């Protein structure tokens, strides 16, 4: 999946700021790719980007209209369809992270054939994949893993990629989820892949390379999450990581949406991920822990990171409040 940039971010008519988190993620990590925004009403959430009509965006060289919002159920509302169809008529590619496929809209499928545009349903993957082999391949890889889902694995991977490049260590972010794909413009949403092919999909996302130093691969789920552990294990084997970074949210009481399921300890999460990763890379090591410390004060977060760094003898930080410099230094030494 290769999505052409730059983007016009379509915000539809949603009024809940949380519904625009996909667009906010794209803007934060790839601001140079976001030419402007298009909204259907004045009440729609805004990212404070220039307001463009489709024609103005076309004149500015925009390649893809990206649906940057979500709603309950992931259904594309009728109120959005006119704008999407008009964009297709004008020759824009369209990308969506909604559950409903763009290809379910008959007019868009017809225009795809007529105009030669691309429709990217990034939550879905229909192309042929090979099963994973675990065969050693060139290049170094870092994978973010977690105690649970939604603990900051994508954010941490992007922060580490950015910091590596700023320190003249050439790194590339490899997306495995819908928001990451829209940020990077490429990738495979591994939770949409048939289980037999997950490790093969990750091998395809990060094949052999020698033209840069590191691939930083976005993690998904957790080996300890009863709902998504299969995805996490397949990703771990396919990534063949040389380094892993553990992500965890301070204050979380149990596995997300499963109050009967306890969170694993940090020690168990580290040891289990390393053991599983050794199936495809016996030399894997952990290079740091990224925490979401938003539930505690800044001073308490500083103290906790320092205490855990001493306890686990690896860098521990909050990539939002602090930096990932200590992790980058560890990576640079590998």
Could you give a short account of the major beta sheet? 6 strands, parallel
Name of the top-level CATH class of the largest domain: Alpha Beta
Computed over alpha carbons, the radius of gyration is 20 Å
CATH fold label of the largest domain: Rossmann fold
H and E string: EHEHEHEHEEHEHHEHEHEHEH
Structural category = alpha/beta
Assembly state? single chain
Strand order within the widest sheet?
7-8-6-9-10-11
| Beta-strand content bin | 15-25%
Q: How would you describe this structure to a colleague?
A:
- The longest helix is centred in the last third of the chain and has 15 residues, at 298-312.
- With 334 residues, the chain is an alpha/beta fold.
- The mean pLDDT is 95.
- The protein has two domains: 7-121, Rossmann fold (3-Layer(aba) Sandwich), CATH 3.40.50; 140-332, Rossmann fold (3-Layer(aba) Sandwich).
- It contains eleven helices and eleven strands.
- A six-stranded parallel beta sheet has the order 7-8-6-9-10-11, sandwiched between helices.
- Helix content is 34%, strand content 16%.
Features:
Rossmann fold, 34% helix, 334 residues, alpha/beta, 11 strands, 5-stranded parallel sheet, 6-stranded parallel sheet
SSE blueprint:
Blueprint: E1 7-12, H1 21-29, E2 34-39, H2 54-59, E3 64-67, H3 78-89, E4 93-96, H4 106-115, E5 119-121, E6 140-146, H5 153-166, E7 171-174, H6 178-184, H7 198-205, E8 214-217, H8 229-239, E9 243-249, H9 266-277, E10 285-292, H10 298-312, E11 316-317, H11 325-332
Parallel strand pairs: 1-2, 1-3, 3-4, 4-5, 6-8, 6-9, 7-8, 9-10, 10-11
Helix pairs in contact: 1-6, 3-4, 7-8
